[in-house]
Amino acid sequence: MRAWQYVGTGEPLARVELPEPVAGAGEVVVDVRAAGLCHTDVAIMDGPTSSILGQVPIVLGHEVAGVVRELGPGVTGVRVGDRVGIDPSGGFHGPGVGRDGGYAAATIGRVGELVPIPDGVGFEQAASGCDAGATSHHAVRAVAQVTAGTRVGVIGLGGLGQVGARIAVLAGAEVHVADVRAELEDVARGLGAQGFVTDVADLAPLGLDVLIDFAGMRTTGPAIDAVRPGGRVVQVGAGAPEATISVERLVIKRVELLGTLGSERADLESVYQLMASGELDPVITTLGFDDIPAGLDQLRRGEATGRLIARYAD
Length: 314
Known about the structure:
By secondary structure, the chain is α/β, with parallel strands linked by helices. It has 2 domains: 2-116 and 283-311, Medium-chain alcohol dehydrogenases, catalytic domain (Quinone Oxidoreductase, Chain A, domain 1), CATH 3.90.180.10; 132-259, 3-Layer(aba) Sandwich (Rossmann fold). The protein has 8 helices and 16 strands. Helix 2 crosses helix 3 and helix 2 crosses helix 7. The two termini are 15 Å apart.
């Protein structure tokens, strides 16, 4: 079967033909219909996070949606033909990190990872929910603890930030967005944001309860400066490996600084229900299987619009 394989740091993905996967005990084979492209893949290819991989070479792609083709021994509760997303909350053991993932015609899903895709939710949406959606949901609801009336700042309106902003709006929060790309103001307003700025510092006069940083482009320090005294800063994005913060400001303002990574199965299930209801409809740019390397280059250059999703032919 066709696949794009990571072979080493600094190397381009290799277009290879691999044997068809075979489902073991507690596993199924999933014919991939859509796979999301993530900055994590770029960081793996460029070196900073390649150490998290469970094997090399490996097929990347940890946002996977498709159709169950084959059941392994002992599998119950799943049928051939089921539409499923693969929950990536297994982290370092999951697809595209611990084992071959979604940049291939088919991949292995473990029964406990399979989340049914509701009627009315397309494969592209379902794939985006597997990381961008679930990670954003977890950051907003579980870590930032956003509820009705919370005054929220969202930094970065990329693949995760746009979902996080919308989830905060749906929770009843007052949402303000900061992104250096002024052309995204209309997108932010469309998500329900009440304010938009191009500089995080411009959020400071608002006295926001929480700032959620989906960018991580040395924006942690400005976020601490901008949040209200006693507020919370949640770090999701890690676009730059290091940031400088003022410990004095952190202490004097009594700011709570929290980092978060990934999600839980319940987050993906909630995201799928929001998608099925029509309340959550992420901005998605689709591309073909052969365009995956070019799409990752787009991410590397910061030129992607919304979440990039590779859509495979049925």
